[in-house]
User: What shape does this take?
Amino acid sequence: MTTPKELDALLACQSFFSEGRSTVSPRRLVGVAARAGFATVGLADWCSVAGAVELCDEAQAQGLQAIIGVTLPVQFPSPPRASAPTEVFPLVLLARSREGYTTLCELITMVNLQHPEGLPLDALREVGGQAQDHLICLTGGRQGFPTVLGEARDLARAAMYLRLLRSIFRFALYVQLAHDQAPQERRRLSLLRGLARDLELPVVAAPEVCMAEAADYPLLDALTCARLGIDVQTPHPERPRNDARQVGTPGGWAGLLPFPDALLNAQTLAGQCALHLPPNACTAPSPPCRRARPHSRRWRTGYTARCPTGIQKISAAWPPSACAPNSTPWRNSTWRAFSSRPAR
Assistant: This one.
């Protein structure tokens, strides 16, 4: 396989289903990516796959490949003298098959119902480890632990976390490379590549896209402030620094992430994780129901005590034989019984 000169796959985009983290719908995201020349669009919303069907539907209409993933908060063990026993960092998981998509749904349910503060690493090992052949794990972008710990010069802990993840996703763990056009980005990317090389882990070019175009930056900043509960005058590390998280172009991203192995791995993952979920195949299961019993003994006893005259009229208009499945519906019978009731 020849080394690509452009990044034609966006693996880790987020839509407005990531509340307060994006400004673009899955449909618009695919449309803008198609016009820009991308061949694959991946959606990895925060604790949600709500945009998966819309993504696949529009990708098929535009002739693009769709990738379904999710961004999950995961709890990692803190150092011995830390104030909290765990520290939360995001991970990006991509489904390689329908079994992987099912596992993503299970993990999202665990976070929403049992671990809203973050998925324990043991739970990820138990659920994700069983489906390791159906999932791809990316280490996260700007808020991921390789970047955060690398900027804090805590490379030993970053290496420890990478080893823990490698024990879960043996051959499916990639160090994510993203570019925010911030100061010292090349130095940060070199540090991540060196860390991955020391641990013999692959890197992948996966920009964090959450805007359709640069004009959406003020709205993204306002939504981020609203999610964090701060005003626009208050600085915060999670606020977007500029308009770098737009869709962009394949050549533009290749210029910002000019690493042949990372571009090649992005192209490879785009082929491995392409998944289509047709709308008519996503139906909720119907719960088992018992047939209603209009002439319930309990209902008749209570109503007779309150309105003996009314129950006599209903019984006359609707004998027990009318309860058969092919009989006249009880609504019509009841209407006939009460149609002669004088107005008050």
About this structure: The domain at 9-281 is CATH 3.20.20.140 (TIM Barrel). The beta strands are 9-13, 40-46, 65-77, 86-95, 119-120, 135-138, 173-177, 203-205. The first helix runs from residue 26 to 36.
